[in-house]
Amino acid sequence: MSAAALAASVAACGSDDSSGDSSGSDSTEASAESAAPAETSADTASTGSESATTDAGSGDSGAAADGDLRALTGFDAESEACSDAEIDLGAVLALTGPGSFYGKTMTRGIDLAVAQIDEVGGPHFNVIYKDHKSGDPAAGQQAITELGESGVPAKLASYVDDLGAMLAGTADYEVFTLDGGGGTSEFGKAQPFFWGTRAVTPNDPLPGLRPDLIWAALADMLLGTLLTGVLCLVAIDVAILRRHSLGQYLRQAARQLLPLLIFTLAISIAIGIGIVFLVVPGLYAAARYLPYAATTVFEDAGWQGITRAETLTRGYRWPLAGLLAVFFLLILLVGIPAGVLAGTLGPVPAFLSEAFFAALGYLLGAAFTAAVYLRLRQLQDGVSTAEIAATVG
């Protein structure tokens, strides 16, 4: 059955051959008009209930004025053509992978809709489920090929037709597609036989740069930098068996907040550029400035903290780069599988998992920085932890 045949089959559910007049064709025409593109909806809405009643063609005008969907569409639940109709419907969803929670939720919604349509007289939809594995292009292409070769006329999809992997097949096989599992995105717009039914991505050259989001990002950076400074102070004090109040830690970190923030941004950019060039330069850049938080905040060096960090790491940067590589690898080996697992359990576990690993990252980073700083002080300055405790802070 082609998409055109599907339209005819559904239209048949609105005809009534026993009426002896043209009400069925009027209703079908009204249905086509009501399914016009979204840009006409504002004009339609402005005409009010009287227009809705007129456009409905035949049927009870009072029911139509009240928004009766059956009257507006000419749907006849008791039509033999409708009750006997069976329509194959594909559903290519994220049944496995990180997005499987959403795929399973959509599956339950589809099954419920099919059951409810059956209860009111059909048509019956034979749903053929396919798994695009949360955005796997190969899985999506295989799914649309199998549906197209089988003559399935329509499908439900997600991930903007599997991140665009199915769009070509959707057009080639003329499979009418409704995608309610993601925004349309630029690449999904104006595609043959494809309609995104959820969000419309704005044509913004710099999407997401709203003032509220900019302020939120700045607040996040400031709080993250302050937290980095506080945790660095706490980790060093724990290592040298010394203790201060939370207020003291906050005041000392806040005093050096601006240089610490600028250093963090500059070093992050340097590391990012280095990572692009085969990773190793990025690790070396990270090793070169590794104890900058400790030198800036703990030693209260301020704007001299970056040069002080370079002095401490001189002669030890390659060993530190290797140590960083092992540290990051361990974080990834634990974090990625845990994040994927949490994602399959739903949005709340995913959020909690993300928050947990963010907090863990801050704690481990502070402990790692403190240990490296104290060891470099011993190697470069020849001082013990007791001497550091007595002379700094």
Task: Give a short synopsis of this structure.
The protein is of the alpha/beta class. It is built from 20 helices and 5 strands.
Q: How confident overall, as mean pLDDT? A: 78
Could you tell me how far the N terminus lies from the C terminus, measured between alpha carbons in angstroms? 79 Å
The ordered H/E elements are: HHHHHHHEHEHEHHEEHHHHHHHHH
Would you identify the regions where 5 or more consecutive residues have pLDDT less than 50? 15-67
Rg, nearest Å: 31 Å
Largest sheet, in brief, is: 5 strands, parallel
Helix content: 55-70%
Descriptive notes:
The chain has helices at residues 3-12, 23-34, 41-46, 48-55, 61-65, 69-73, 80-83, 100-119, 137-149, 159-163, 167-172, 211-239, 246-255, 257-276, 280-288, 292-298, 305-313, 317-345, 347-381, 385-391; strands at 86-93, 124-131, 154-158, 176-181, 194-196. The protein is of the alpha/beta class. Strand 1 (86-93), helix 8 (100-119) and strand 2 form a beta-alpha-beta unit. The protein is elongated, with a radius of gyration of 31 Å. It starts with a helix and ends with a helix. Residues 15-67 have low confidence and may be disordered.
Walk me through the topology.
Blueprint: H1 3-12, H2 23-34, H3 41-46, H4 48-55, H5 61-65, H6 69-73, H7 80-83, E1 86-93, H8 100-119, E2 124-131, H9 137-149, E3 154-158, H10 159-163, H11 167-172, E4 176-181, E5 194-196, H12 211-239, H13 246-255, H14 257-276, H15 280-288, H16 292-298, H17 305-313, H18 317-345, H19 347-381, H20 385-391
Parallel strand pairs: 1-2, 1-3, 3-4, 4-5
